[in-house]
Write a structure and sequence with these properties.
280 residues, 2 domains
């Protein structure tokens, strides 16, 4: 008699396992199909561009084919020093991003925690943020020259205000009860900031980081295009000056790839470090 219930239990268990099987089986092909579709779309675009240029439908001066772009890379590396210029642009972008990150968060914390400071500084910061940055880059060139500091300052200018206002928005999400409990337990102001305020503001701050991870590179390129001695923007100026379309597309592809790598690093940092800190 005892064997009958065990058999019934085994019969009931089989459909449960089988029901989970197709669900898992469907997930893997879906991911593969998405990636395959993305690769196929990219390949189709590249083949179409290659056809347009090779057939003479579009002149090479207006559009470079993928093969011409690939052929331009060795020339850029050997003759133009692409690696050196790339490192210059990335260092300008990342240093400016780091300065904007630290200064913006510090300002945001002070303004978020001290309403009087917020009321005093907010009109000035809003007015400065509203100034079109591209329009004043030539003016900044007169003040700072065309050296390294000029590019870093422009990157900071593009990123600082976003960090300030995103930090303020994040601090406003802090539960007042949490701060009251921390005060009752004797937490110092520094402990309240690092244990309660900043962890609560992490999502808003990381939203700013994701945006600025790309904008810092764009800002460095804009500064270099206006006036520079080195950098990808300098190479772009020289390539467009002689209508070297293949080199222009190669440079754009290079900076795009590294911008995507920066975004990937930011996302991994958010997942592995900052979000864990938030939940500590």
């Amino acid at each position: 008699m005892s064997s009958v219930p065990s058999r019934l239990h085994a019969v009931r268990a089989v459909p449960a396992i089988e029901a989970g099987g197709p669900a898992r089986a469907r997930r893997i092909p879906a991911a593969v199909l998405i990636v395959s579709g993305q690769v196929a779309l990219l390949a189709a675009i590249l083949f179409y561009v290659q056809f347009l240029v090779d057939s003479g439908t579009v002149k090479p001066i207006y559009l470079a084919s993928p093969t011409q772009v690939l052929e331009a890379f060795p020339r850029l590396v050997v003759e133009e020093g692409l690696v050196r210029h790339l490192l210059t642009t990335l260092s300008e972008a990342l240093l400016g991003l780091a300065i904007a990150f630290v200064a913006g968060i510090a300002t945001g914390v002070v303004m978020g925690l001290l309403p009087a400071v917020h009321r005093f500084l907010n009109p000035f910061l809003v007015a400065l943020m509203a100034i079109p940055k591209v329009a004043i880059i030539p003016l900044l060139t007169l003040y700072l020259g065309i050296g390294y500091a000029h590019k870093v300052f422009i990157v900071v200018l593009f990123g600082y205000f976003i960090f300030v206002f995103n930090t303020i928005a994040g601090i406003r999400q802090v539960q007042e009860n949490h701060l009251k409990v921390a005060r009752v337990l004797g937490a110092t102001p520094a402990q309240r900031i690092f244990k309660i305020v900043l962890p609560s503001a992490i999502p808003a701050i990381m939203a700013a980081v994701r945006v600025e991870a790309v904008m810092c590179v764009v800002a460095a390129l804009l500064a270099e295009i206006v006036a520079s001695k080195a950098g990808i923007g300098n190479l772009l100026n020289r390539a467009t000056g002689v209508y070297d379309t293949a080199a222009v597309f190669a440079l754009v592809a290079t900076i795009t790839v590294f911008a995507l790598l920066i975004i990937f690093v930011v996302e991994q940092l958010e997942k592995r470090v900052l979000l864990r800190w938030k939940h500590v």
